[in-house]
Amino acid sequence: MNTYARPVSIAGIGSTRFGKMPERSIESLALEAAVAAIEDAGVERRRIGAVYLGNFVGGALVGQEILAGLLGDQLDLHGVPCTKVEGACASGGIALRHACLAVATGQCDVALAVGVEKMSHASTAQVTSALNCAMDNRADGPAGLTFPGFFGLVWGAHAARYGTTRRDVSAVVRKNKANGMRNPLAQQGRLITDEEIDASALIADPLRLHDCCPVSDGAAAVVVVARDVWSGNRSRLVDVLASVQTSGPARIAGFDDPCSFPATVRAAQLAFAQSGITASELAFVELHDCFSIAEIVDSEDLGIVPRGQGHHWAAEGRTAVDGDMPINPSGGLLAKGHPVGATGLGQAFEAVRQLRGEHANQVRDAVFGMTHNLGGTGVACTVSILARGDR
Amino acid sequence: MNTYARPVSIAGIGSTRFGKMPERSIESLALEAAVAAIEDAGVERRRIGAVYLGNFVGGALVGQEILAGLLGDQLDLHGVPCTKVEGACASGGIALRHACLAVATGQCDVALAVGVEKMSHASTAQVTSALNCAMDNRADGPAGLTFPGFFGLVWGAHAARYGTTRRDVSAVVRKNKANGMRNPLAQQGRLITDEEIDASALIADPLRLHDCCPVSDGAAAVVVVARDVWSGNRSRLVDVLASVQTSGPARIAGFDDPCSFPATVRAAQLAFAQSGITASELAFVELHDCFSIAEIVDSEDLGIVPRGQGHHWAAEGRTAVDGDMPINPSGGLLAKGHPVGATGLGQAFEAVRQLRGEHANQVRDAVFGMTHNLGGTGVACTVSILARGDR
Predict the structure, then answer these.
(1) Distance from CA of A63 to the nearest CA of B (A)
(2) Count of CB atoms situated within 10 Å of the CB of A235
(3) ipTM
(4) What is the DSSP-derived secondary structure letter of residue A204?
């Protein structure tokens, strides 16, 4: 798997706010995040030796591809390989992994990873259609399946096996929306009640509106550097101990168990093995709560909550920022928003702020943190484990 | 740049024919090429440790993304990282480079690179719009620029500086269409006369219909292996001496010289330096002749023809299969076709057949060959240098 014989660190982070910015161009979002990350790192642009840009529906919704090259052009990085990577909702995590690989394998000393998406200008029908580009449309398309429909089925399976209730799942929504209030970049931070959730529109039974992440625009970026040659400020470095990418079944018929995403299980196992740390050492996890039920399933798949206990941990407040295993102190996709291709790098942005001790919703003793980015029906996944550089 | 401390070879190749196959799904095209490459290599699927898939307009034209994951699922490669890479028309070359990197840097011993595109089901207007996703649409879009328009401007500049004539450029068309007759995978092999070219529809002055590559469907794939651990048939291995990726200006306003693509110049220089061979050692070059004039400019940029002499070499037959520098013995994009995301791997397929000595339009003494894949307005480029394994 990944070889990190050469240690890799994140030296700079940047992000736009996440939200509805239909007037912004997709290029300007990516550029804003990239410039902020480069400035935060204090690195000269000419030292950047590789650019990876995660984006999902630029082709389908915006009519603009070659986004990595456009960003490289705008940054005057001529000559440098600039690559768009796509793995549906995991595109940002894949960009991060490839930037880490470029540095870890000695291709360059500094690499830029950017994620971006622009969605809010389109109609709900257009967005639903574009998001369905992440399905196996020949296998599951004819059934009329959408992603809310898919995660509704996941919820049903989890409830049938473990007795997961509406109140349990609402606890995820309440926590993440509240966490979002402490995140200045978040789209939907608020206090929300069980009653409001119950009264919101039914999207795909049992998922209601507030169980679904919003449609978002935004971008996030990180500058990855080789620790051995980094001459900048070392005190703010965050080390990447592991950045793993896996794949899983694409079609519903390919799942042995609808309560689990094999790509997440495998990615987490590999990330723990590669980093040499255990779940109990994690101070927080930023995971892929595209829907409320996803946070429960993901937490079990990642091995940070016992199998079949995800809904109990949520309901009991054990995943709150001051709980046993803080999950999504950023507000997660549910409250921070989900500009699809940006999400994986938005999670890295949040994790770095936690590990620097400068997060607005800071967890205690943040030495190690995890990020988890899931694509489509679990067909692509990335898990990264980050660590405070001066630990 | 790329580190090939661990030697990398191509052990297997596969390709669909290139042409109009509107009834075929994009997944089935990719799968056909991948399965053929795996069978040609004689490798067990479970040894594949990474999948890179090049595709450009799957989102805009087909409504299907996550193609790398879908392919991995269909090949039962669960767990393996599967990544779509996009760099407009250079997407296939970028996939090849990343498969080579995955093996060369020890992430795995066997990697699969696939390129695919499906276009012929769409209307000309839809295709033109989708291809324009490779432009900087905010900078050049308002002028109404299309790719035929862009390469028409390139031709005008080359003609103004070097006196390039319609007959010179037609020599490229005649050669490539004739070469295509010897390629069983080609879409448009034929004998064509100057008069037919002159009489064909004017697309974007001075480009006529036969100066433009056709709209194509198709897929191609290669299996990349670590030479040090390869236990299969060694006599058919083709070594990858260099696989370089660069970037260049995205906007017309960014070009100092419309007669040259800086990304190609730099990629070729790096590929020669990395491989340690010179242009005079190349037995053939498969280059990116998306339009007839592009072959002339590319040949100069690559350093295989003297600057300002590309049109003369074409007109004098020096780039024919039995000439001084055979260019596009496959028929190139003009005759073989240009299923965009597949093209870079289609070029690798052709080069491997030449270097195995089994090409239907075989060049003499094929020990070293080059492939060149150009994206958009030259914003992305890959150049690879391949060598017969038993040289």
Answers:
(1) 5
(2) 9
(3) 0.97
(4) E
Looking at domain A136-213+241-388, its CATH class is: alpha beta
pTM exceeding 0.95: yes
Question: Do the Cβ atoms of B89 and B342 come closer than 8 Å?
Answer: no
Helix (H) or strand (E) holding B162: helix B147-162
In DSSP terms, B15 is beta-bridged to B220
Q: Mutation target for A interface from B66, B67, B73, B136: give the one with most A CBs within 10 A.
A: B66
Instruction: From the candidates A98, A288, A311, A338, give the one annotated as an active-site residue.
Output: A338
Q: What is the DSSP letter of B285?
A: E
Cβ contact A73–B262 (<8 Å): no
Identify each DSSP E strand in A191-271 by its residue range: 202-204, 207-208, 218-226, 238-247
Q: Is A372 a catalytic residue?
A: no
CB contact under 8 A, B87 and A84: yes
> Does this chain's domain A8-122+215-239 share its CATH topology with A136-213+241-388?
yes
Tokens for A133?
């580009």
CA of A317 to nearest chain B CA: how many angstroms apart?
Answer: 32
Dihedral sign of CA atoms A199, A200, A205, A206 in order:
negative
Domain ranges, ordered by start, for chain B: 8-122+215-239, 143-212+241-388
pLDDT in tens, A63-120: 999 999 999 999 999 899 999 999 999 999 999 999 999 999 999 999 999 999 999 9
CB atoms within 10 A of CB A364: 9
**Strand, coil or helix: what is A110?**
strand
Question: Which amino acid does the sequence have at B276?
Answer: G
Provide the CATH topology of domain B143-212+241-388.
Peroxisomal Thiolase; Chain A, domain 1 (3.40.47)
- What homologous superfamily is domain B8-122+215-239 in, according to CATH? Thiolase/Chalcone synthase (3.40.47.10)
